[in-house]
Amino acid sequence: MKAETGGSLAGWGLRDLSIMTISAAIILGLGQWQAATASTTSHIVGAAAGFVIGYVLCYIVHEWGHLIGAKLSGSVMPLSRYSSPLIGSFDIYAHNRRQFLAMSWGGVAGYVLVGALLVTLYFVDYRGTVSGGLAVAGLAFNVQSLCVDLPQIVRVQRLQQSSSDIAETNRTGASGAVILKRTGQSWAALALLLALWHLT
């Protein structure tokens, strides 16, 4: 049986650029629909689509941030198949603490950058509920991911951990139960803050 191999860097770039291009076209189309009809349906669809697109964009750039951070630190990060949600595979046991932190901070930088951009666009280029959905997605992805990522990164940064210790920190800090719990907590807090902002 032939072994499955990962994609190429150019292929991943083409895949994600295509997703971004299609997303931009959808955003523009939804904005025009709302401007032309101002219908309730267009606002609901716009908000939902904006959220999904914004979340996907944050995820894509966050993955590229991981890859860039890993490469800059000299890590070996084989690329995944194009159908994978992960751009590459980082073997904690094959890398040191500095390389793990570079890979991790790269991902954080990616989603913080996109989140800030989406929120900024809401204020400078408002396109109805589409813009609102994009901005909320940027905030939601950031609060969720920071609540999951930062405790692990800070722990590894503060302690002189071995590869096995880092792997254990990553395993327990990013388990399904932990992610679900912190997502619920962070999104509930975000919803409350957004509600208070809307009422002021």
* Strand segment tally: 0
Overall spatial form: globular
- What percent of residues are in strands? under 5%
Structural class assignment: mainly alpha
What summary fits the major beta sheet?
Answer: none
List the secondary-structure elements in sequence, H or E. HHHHHH
Helix count equals 6
What are the segments in which pLDDT stays under 50 over at least 5 consecutive residues?
none
Rg, nearest Å:
19 Å
Whole-number mean pLDDT? 92
Distance N to C terminus: 63 Å
Helicity, as a percent range = over 70%
Structural domains: how many? 1
Summary, kept brief:
By secondary structure, the chain is mainly α.
Can you characterise this structure?
The mean pLDDT is 92. The chain is mainly alpha-helical and 200 residues long. It has one domain (9-199). It has helices at residues 9-37, 40-72, 97-124, 129-158, 163-173, 176-199. It is 78% helix and 0% strand.
Task: Compile the SSE list and pairings.
Elements: H1 9-37, H2 40-72, H3 97-124, H4 129-158, H5 163-173, H6 176-199
Helix pairs in contact: 1-2, 2-3, 2-4, 3-4, 4-5, 4-6
Question: Could you list some keywords that capture this structure?
Answer:
6 helices, 200 residues, mainly alpha
